[in-house]
Amino acid sequence: MSVEHSMQSSTIVDVLEKILDKGVVIAGDITVGIADVELLTIKIRLIVASVDKAKEIGMDWWETDPYLSSKAVGNDTKALEEENKRLQERLEALEKKMDTNRLNSTEFNY
Question: What are the protein's UniProt keywords (predicted)?
Answer without folding.
Answer: Coiled coil, Gas vesicle
